């Protein structure tokens, strides 16, 4: 056998040694063909893999269960993913908006099929009210469950035009002045009764806070009262307030204040407002207006009548019988109570003992204190401003307060949201850092070139 091998070996060697150009060329072309085939196979495999991962979403909202079926996952896995990775609380039967659906699909390593641009457009439409922005999924209420709710009024206007004095004047008509004790240093929200019907007022500390809340999907107000001083007319912040109300899609009521002054010129104010497309009724427009004097307390009843009239037109309703959802207007630490958050209940009824999540904090309602700072309530329904006691941390203004099924879920959700917020911050910090480092280096390079 070995002899045969010895005979055969030289041939193999000679084959290996042979360096004829033709042999090499032939081999390399054969290799490149193979390579091409392999590349083609690889591409085909990749395309097949992408196809397997691609899912097409139908138009409109999907329930959690439907979405789970489309991406071939268990609904429980989808709910857990939404809670830990998106900070969104949802139940199986709740509908998700397209932006949230896309986020879930991509989160499970799948690709959304169809026209990419189409989804981008939808994302922008759903941005403000998307579950991703708000952190919870809203159920559509059955029209039969809806009952009338009090209007929520925000007072806006230029500095020194008498917003606060108007608020105080309205309050003093229904609240006994000189309250002793209680928490009334800077009341941000309260309710007054006019002819037996409640009206909720919210005092926004400036436009920045108002727009900031709006951007976070917390559109709290139903009607904006624009306070304009009769002796001063329309100023910069008055114009800003008009823009704010327009963006929020909320009707305006103009309250022309300081009408008791000799220098008051109501007609000038009205003509000034027409430049901003605010036409009052007497000029053939639809904007209600009222001439008041916060100092003298005149015209307030007329203003409240107009508010009730506008509220009737708006037909404001909410469902009081579901789990409560509210918006934190402001939060502070009170001696002996811990964190107290003034919250406006949007829908449902909040009760003492409810477990809740608000932004990146959670807690259990230990007490509900009315906005007078003293009265303890057992529950609070839609459009009611109430001080909630029992937070574990301090929520931010504009956070959505939502009643959760149990404490463990509330805590997990709050922790997920805190983590997501931290990750976002660090990601933006890093990208900014890289940019600034990049600009420094490019700047150095430019200097060297100049020299």
List descriptors.
3 domains, 43% helix
Structure overview:
A hairpin with a 2-residue loop joins strand 16 and strand 17. The chain contains 13 helices and 21 strands. Helix 3 packs across helix 4, helix 4 packs across helix 13 and helix 9 runs parallel beside helix 10. It has 451 residues and is α+β, with helices and mostly antiparallel strands. The relative contact order is 0.09. Strands 7-8-6-9-10-11 form a 6-stranded mixed β-sheet. The N and C termini lie far apart (79 Å). It is globular. It has 3 domains: 80 residues, no CATH class; 176 residues, 3-Layer(aba) Sandwich (Rossmann fold); 85 residues, Elongation Factor Tu (Ef-tu), domain 3 (Beta Barrel), CATH 2.40.30.
Average per-residue pLDDT, rounded, comes to 75
Instruction: Give the low-pLDDT segments.
Output: 12-18, 115-126, 176-185
Number of domains: 3
What is the CATH third-level topology name of the largest domain?
Rossmann fold
**Helix segment tally:** 13
> What is the CATH superfamily classification of the largest domain?
P-loop containing nucleotide triphosphate hydrolases
Describe the main β-sheet briefly.
6 strands, mixed
Beta-strand fraction estimate:
15-25%
How many strands in all? 21
Helix content: 40-55%
Return Rg in Å: 32 Å
Our measurement of the CA-to-CA distance between the termini, rounded to an integer number of angstroms, reads: 79 Å
Give me the CATH architecture of the largest domain, please. 3-Layer(aba) Sandwich
Name the CATH class of the largest domain: Alpha Beta
* Alpha-beta classification: alpha+beta
Q: If strands are numbered along the chain, what order do they take across the biggest sheet?
A: 7-8-6-9-10-11
Which overall shape is indicated by the principal axes computed on the Cα atoms?
globular
């Amino acid at each position: 056998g070995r002899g045969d091998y010895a005979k055969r070996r030289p041939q193999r060697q000679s084959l290996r040694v042979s360096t004829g150009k033709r042999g090499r060329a032939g081999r390399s072309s054969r290799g490149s063909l193979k390579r091409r085939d392999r590349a083609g196979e690889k591409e085909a495999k990749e395309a097949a893999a992408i196809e397997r991962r691609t899912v097409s979403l139908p138009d409109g909202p999907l329930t959690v269960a439907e979405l789970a079926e489309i991406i071939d996952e268990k609904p429980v896995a989808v709910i857990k993913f939404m809670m830990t990775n998106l900070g969104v609380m949802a139940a199986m039967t709740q509908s998700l908006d397209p932006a949230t659906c896309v986020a879930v699909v991509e989160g499970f390593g799948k690709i959304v099929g169809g026209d990419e641009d189409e989804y981008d457009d939808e994302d922008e439409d759903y941005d403000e009210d998307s579950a991703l922005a708000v952190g919870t999924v809203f159920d559509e209420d059955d029209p039969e469950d809806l009952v009338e709710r009090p209007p929520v009024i925000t007072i806006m206007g230029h500095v020194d035009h008498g917003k606060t004095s108007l608020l105080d004047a309205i309050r003093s008509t229904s609240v006994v002045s000189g309250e002793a004790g209680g928490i009334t240093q800077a009341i941000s929200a309260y309710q007054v009764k006019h002819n037996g019907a409640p009206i909720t007022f919210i005092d926004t500390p400036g436009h920045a806070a108002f727009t900031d809340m709006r951007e976070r999907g917390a559109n709290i107000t139903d009607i904006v009262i624009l306070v304009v001083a009769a002796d001063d007319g329309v100023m910069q912040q008055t114009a800003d307030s008009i823009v704010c109300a327009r963006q929020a899609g909320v009707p305006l009521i103009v309250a022309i204040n300081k009408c008791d002054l000799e220098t008051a010129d109501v007609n000038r104010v009205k003509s000034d407002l027409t430049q901003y497309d605010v036409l009052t009724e007497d000029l053939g427009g639809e904007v209600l207006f009222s001439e008041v004097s916060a100092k003298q307390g005149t015209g307030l009843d007329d203003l409240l009548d107009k508010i009730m009239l506008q509220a009737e037109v708006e037909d404001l309703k909410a469902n009081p019988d579901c789990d409560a959802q509210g918006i934190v207007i402001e939060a502070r630490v009170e001696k002996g109570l811990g964190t107290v958050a003034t919250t406006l209940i949007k829908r449902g009824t909040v009760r003492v003992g409810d477990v809740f999540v608000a932004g990146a904090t959670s807690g259990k309602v230990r007490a509900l204190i009315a906005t007078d700072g003293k009265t303890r309530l057992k529950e609070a329904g839609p459009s009611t401003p109430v001080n909630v006691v029992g937070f574990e941390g301090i929520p931010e203004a504009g956070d959505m307060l939502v009643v959760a099924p149990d404490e463990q879920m509330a805590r997990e959700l709050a922790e997920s949201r805190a983590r997501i917020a931290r990750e976002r911050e660090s990601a933006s910090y890093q990208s900014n850092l890289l940019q600034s480092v990049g600009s420094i280096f490019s700047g150095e390079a430019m200097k060297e070139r100049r020299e």
